Amino acid sequence: MSLKGTLASRRGFLVSVGVGALGGLAGCLGDGNDTGDPATTRDENGQQETNTPDQVVKTAPSDSTPRDTPTQTATPSGSLSPPFRSESGTTNYGIELAGNPVIANTSDPAVDIYYWSDYQCAYCKQFEVSDHGGFPKLIRNDVADGTVRIVLLHYPNYGQHSWTADVMATCLWNRVKDDRPDRFWEWHRTVFENQQLDGEEWSSRSSLLGYARDIDGIDADALDQCMKQNRKQHETEIKQERKRARNEGFSDTPGFVLYHPKSEQTTSFFGAQPYSTFKQQIDAYRNL
Questions:
Q1: What are the CA-CA distances from residue 61 to residues 58, 137, 271, 279 (Å)?
Q2: Measured between alpha carbons, how far is 116 from 249 in angstroms, rounded to an integer?
Q3: At what angle do helices 160-176 and 181-194 cross, to 10 degrees?
Q4: Quick one: which H or E segment has residue 111?
Q5: What DSSP string runs through 221-260?
Q6: Into which CATH architecture does domain 84-286 fall?
Q7: Residue 149 in 3-state DSSP?
Q8: pLDDT the model gives residue 25
Q9: How many helices and strands, by DSSP H and E, does the chain display?
Q10: Please, what's the largest Cα pairwise distance for the chain?
């Protein structure tokens, strides 16, 4: 597909189930690889065997409004320290918790938010590190008071660098989840803050490891070794999360499913949603 055709296809869409529809903003449409397979193959040490170029977000859709358009210098959301938890088991909605970062103050929330993202998606960055996005206020308000639990899920959508970032994130979470989950957050936030709309060096394996080396408490050499030894296993797990996102109707990122355990109702939507969108639905579930 031509660049023009690719950009034209990156329009916002809405999927709504159970409860009334919610407005969607523009999101990041990926490389069209419906199989969920990484763009390249590797040897047993995780080294690339073929040389398929990565696909990265180049710009926002031409039909986006200015508020919807991500920039390379998104306004920082300020100091944010999400309460990460390591949980196991499967939710009633069928989401695996083991191995996935969970942001919550309780294991029995009123509302679950299942959040699929891609480290190369500019709208995921906007959602997380910009005051225009809903993530910071969700953490400070609804996670803080025990209403919401957010489960971070993988949806690699832009070629090999996306898969590398997700595998590294999995390795890192598994290493720090019990003792220093804040170290995962520091790396996660750093990747998004370094995201660029043009160029690929920022998301290369060496750059991603470099961010880890700059964070006290992360053994980057051990992280690199995990990447080499466990990449195939983690990619298999990530494929399942990506497949689940596509089954939910998401071809773009970020994608969200809000699940109300008490009523088993769900609402799904996508894009760099403002806090008001989440708050409206959370309040509606509270009143059920």
A1: 10, 26, 12, 26
A2: 12
A3: 160
A4: strand 111-117
A5: HHHHHHHHHHHHHHHHHHHHHHHHHHHTT-SEESEEEEEE
A6: 3-Layer(aba) Sandwich (3.40)
A7: strand
A8: 55
A9: 8, 8
A10: 54
Sign of CA dihedral 43, 47, 53, 58: positive
197 closest CA partner among 73, 285, 76, 81: 73
**Residue 187: both structure tokens together:** 């790396």
Domain ranges across the chain: 84-286
Residue that is written with structure tokens 């969200």 in the block: 256
Predicted TM-score of the model (pTM): 0.80
pLDDT in tens, 162-195: 999 999 999 999 999 999 999 999 999 999 999 9
Q: Which amino acid is at 128?
A: E
CA distance 1 to 130: 31
- Report the half-sphere exposure of 21 (CA within 13 A, side-chain side): 6
Alpha-carbon gap, residue 184 to 174, rounded angstroms: 9
Q: Is the CB of residue 239 less than 8 Å from the CB of residue 247?
A: no
Tokens of 143: 């996670």
Radius of gyration (C-alpha) of the chain in whole angstroms: 18
Q: Tokens in use for 36?
A: 């969920």
Q: Which residues pair with 255 in a beta bridge?
A: 116, 270
What DSSP designation does 286 have?
Answer: H
Q: What does the pLDDT look like over 212-221, one tens digit per residue?
A: 999 999 999 9
